Every structure is written in structure tokens, then in C-alpha cells.
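User: Could you check the structure of this?
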Amino acid sequence: MILNRRNTVLGLFLVLIFFNQCKQGAEESIDVSSPDGKILVTFTIRGGVPHYQISRSGRDVIKASKLGFTFKDAAPLNRNLAVVGHRQSSFDEVWVQPWGEVKDIRNHYNQLHVQLAETTAAPRKMNLVFKVYDDGVGFRYELPAQEHLGAVQITDEQTQFKLAGDHKAWWIKAYQWNRYEYLYQSSAVSDIDTVVHTPLTMETRDGLYLSIHEAALTDYPSMTLAPTGRTVLECDLVPWWDGIKVKTETPFVTPWRTIQIAETAGDLITSYLILNLNEPNKLGDVSWVQPGKYVGIWWGMHIGTYTWESGEKHGATTANAKRYIDFAAEHGFPGVLIEGWNTGWDGDWIANSDLFNFTTPYDDFDMPVISAYAASKGVKIIGHHETSKGIANYERQVDDAFRYYRQNGINTIKTGYVGFGQNIVPVGDTSGAGEWHHGQYMVRHYRMIVEKAAENKIMLDVHEPIKPTGIRRTYPNMMTREGARGQEYNAWSDGNPPDHTTILPFTRLLGGPMDFTAGIFDLTFEAANRPGNRVSTTLAKQLALYVVIYSPLQMAADLVENYENQPAFQFIEDVPVDWQDTRVLHAQIGDYLTIARQDRNSADWYMGSITDELGRTLETQLTFLDADRQYVAEIYSDADDADWDTNPLAIDISRALVDRSTTLSIRLAPGGGQAIRIRPATEEETHSVTPY
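Assistant: Sure, the predicted C-alpha cells are below.
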């Protein structure tokens, strides 16, 4: 009896010690800084509620912001919490991208891992991990396997971003019928009156540039941001049809919540924090993943020259495909995209999405003949899978569809999901309720397709996708995607204004590559007789976009006949899509941008410079060039009288001898651009080409 009483007292004493330690931990402040010491993250427990805050060089970036979850049929995990342990570590490596904007990426951070537990009789556990880089912060939740928390339905992730000021922001609305395909708006954060997508990019009054996004989105819904105060944003997860945000079970981790922090707008573009927060390549040998350029039977459908559906204007015919293959072979393009080859396009194909068949060609398209003809010319066909909203139909056929493409020598597929709003019907669902493109159900679908494609050694270009969050590091076959308002809007809508492409690199493209489809030469659609539509750029700007808007798959999007006898087409033939290095030379969001990229496979550099509706001249030093070496700059510039509205086709093509001491004067017409190839000069050219 005495022994039992002593054991009881000892047990109560240990419990008191535990709760006393928890109480002390609740008052503890834990700091972790970036390797250069400029960025500081502080984690605290305030009244049982976890908070984090971020400063840079002593200035607040994110003020103390709450963290936590609420669940269906369970108490929230956002209060009565205490620190029961923490550890810090550092990591530094350089890893090599198989393809990308740069070859070598440094992954250097300091990490804080915090273990939390509830101060209740049946405590639940939650961990938080912070990785602090010189260019920003990533953090995520870990919910380990535990007795008191198994299967969960999350109704809210209460991650808060309490901004230190009323910053200027660039944003697009979330929960809209047309997914991500909207023009960006710019306003003070306090004027945002709707839920918005990420990346959300901001400029502070004291000269910093911020972007909130996420990394490694895996089996979890997309994070949008809801304004909940004048300068306060909160995580708003895209829900399932029944309102639940996440359906999962422990153990699980969330995506990383990311805050990129930069001194200049250009530094946002050369931040690789999103990629670094993803897992390394899971596929092993990816030598079969090959960046490249392509032409295709696509633009003609948008401007009415061809149709996807069968009939007299059907674009994907055997004869037309051979013509495009011939053009690709002649001009050195490794790929030809062919849309509309398979049955299912007739009638209202958005409403009748279950009619698509991914292994049955139309009668006027002979797949075996075309694939053999392409192979004889050294060209690869890029396949196409448009699902509309018919996910069940696609998933039933996807294994056969991938096998069919492999049998026909096709190793790249462009997929599409042109359903609108909340209208995705899940496999096996009979409720009649639809899912969003960006909820957990579709995130799972998109990832499944990436994995199946990898199993078949197939590369992907996904349109109407889930936003990029860096998974291309883990699955390098996930090459590029749309996920923004691209070139096709110029064909049949009010079009993209001149400033649109000066915003995309600082917003959507911070997540990853974009298949924008540049290279339209018939800018006013005279050949297509569409007087109500046009492209709001100069010809030189169309060339510059190949450098400015990064994608490992780049399309020369116009009808191939519009490239015949066009000297400016030489730049599209020459420009590579895989880069050794990237430098941002000028950058002002929504106004102008100049980027220089070094070819991974040669000593050549390429420059692209673009502007909004205002003409301007930018002075550019070529200090990135090798010392003691001369180069020839092949310059494709707006002519003196060029203007996107009145004279868009006016272009000058010239050559000049340059070196690292040269300062280029880049004149940009209104809505214009300039594209430059800089290659080592031959001995003869050092004497025959006029110095700049």
C-alpha cells in the first residue's frame, strides 16, 4: 500500500514537472536566422497559441502571426499548446538541375524544428519546421502519427500573414470560373476585397519585394489568401465539394508556406527558394527528359483557320501534319504539337467531355503514318490529351492512352482541363456536386498523371493546371504548364495589354515555367481576317519573350506559313531553352524587364528586354561576358517608328562587336522589346564587324 501511494505521488510529481516545463515553454521565444544573418524568424507561444514573425535587417516583414488548424468532429489544434522540444540545424549544398533557368542551385539554409503538444489530459502533437534562406523563409506543419489524432478532416488551416505595412500588391481573384486566367490587378493590400491566388507579389514602401506562395504541394489543396484585416491575410484552402478542406490521416505534412524577400524586383526572379523546398529528383536517370522548341497545329484553331472538330476545316489531318513536320525538320525544331487528332471534339466538347477517346484518331488522321513520317525526319510528335472536365473518362483511359503514344514514338504530351468553375466530377461520385480545379481531389489527379507519365518516360506540358510549386525538381518530366492568361487570349478576346508580360515574370512565373506560346508574327491577323482581334506587342517583343518568359518547352506559335521569308525568324531558330545562368539586368514590375541568359551548351548569351505601353531606353552593361574576349551581338530591335498600336511589325536587325566593357542602349518602342544573341566573334569578325 505504501509503495503504491509512493508511486502515485511520484507520478503526480512528474506530471507537474511536465506541465511546468510546458508553461515555461509557452513563454519561450526561439529565433533562427538566415545564413547571412539578415532574415530573422522568431517563434513564440502566446497564451497557448503558436505565433511566428519575420524581420529583415531589423525591420518587420511579417508581424506576429497565428498558426493552427480546426477540424470537423474534433477540437481545434490552435490553442493550449506548449513547446516540448526544439532543435536547430544548418544545411548547405549545390545541386544540379537537369534542365532549368540555371544549372547549379545552392540550397543553403538554417532550420528550426519545434515540437508542440497540448497541455491537456490527452495531448495531441504538432511540429513546425522553419527553413530560413538568404532570399526568404519556408515553413510547414508536421502532424506525426499519434494516439489521439488519426484520420482527420481539416476545416481550416489558420496560417496567418500579418504584413508589416500596406504594400502595393499584384493579384488575381481566386474561386473564379476561369481558373487562373485573368489579368493582374494592382492595388494596396488594404484594397484587396476578395480571396486571391498565390504567388501574391508585393512591393513595400521601404524598398523590399515580397512574394507569398507555397512549395511542394502534394495531396493537399491549393492555398489561396483571404484578407481578414487591413494588412492581414490568412490561408484559405480550396475546399472539397462538401466544404472540408483536407481529408487525410496522420502522419502528414503540409506544403511549405513561402515568403520570398528581395531587395530588388529582379532578385525575386532569381530566387530558387521554391525549388529548394521540394524533394530531390525521384526518377533517377532523366536523360530522356529533353527541353526543346516546337511548332504545332494549334494557333490556327484559335484564329479560325482550322477547327479541332472534324469537317472541312479540320486542322489535324495527315496532310497538314506532314506539312508541319517538314517545316520543323527544315528549321531545326525537335517537336510538332498536334491538337484535335482524336475523336470527341465534335459538338459541345466541354459539355460532352466523356466522349473524348484518347486512342482513336479521326478518319483523316493516320497516327502510324504520321509517327513514322516524323521519325524519318528526326522530329517528335507532341501528343495532346484534352479532358475538359471529364476526369473519370480520362482516368479510365490514361494507361491505354500513354501506351498508345509510346507505341507511336511520342514522349511529350500536352494535357488540358478546360472545365470551368466548380464542375469537376470525381471518379465514382454520384452526388452531382463538382470539385474545383485547385482542391485536394484535383491535386491528387495532377500528381497521379505526372507519376504515370514518368513511368512511361513521357514529358508533360499541362494546361489549366494546378499552379506550379516546384515539383519539377522531384519530377523533372513535369516540364511546363499554363496556369495564367496566355497568348491565345489575343486571338478571340479583348486581348492581353502591353503590360501583361511585364507582370507575369514577377507573379505567376515565380512558381515555375510557363507555356505562354510566344512567336506570333501576324500581329494584326490580316491573314486570318479577324479585324476585332490582335496581339498588343511589336514583333521584336515577341522575340524577346523567348528569353523573358522561361519555359523548357517553347512554341513558335504562329502558322508556319507566317514565318516564311521572315528574317526575324532566325532568332527563334537560334534561341535555346536550357540555360547555364540567368541575370536580371533591369526590373520594374508592370513597367519593364531585361533578362540575360547563358546557353547551357555554348558560350552564347541571349538577352530579352520588354516594356509596357510606354516607350523607354535602358542602358545595359555587358559585365557578365568573359574578360579578354570579343563577341558579336545580333540585335533584333524595334525600328525608330515602331509602335505596338500603329506600326508593330517595324523591326531592325543589325550586328555589332561588343565585349564586357560595352554599354548597350536598348531602345524599346511603346509595347515593344528587343532580343539579342551575343556569341563569341570569329577572328575575321573582330576585324570586319563594326564595334558598338
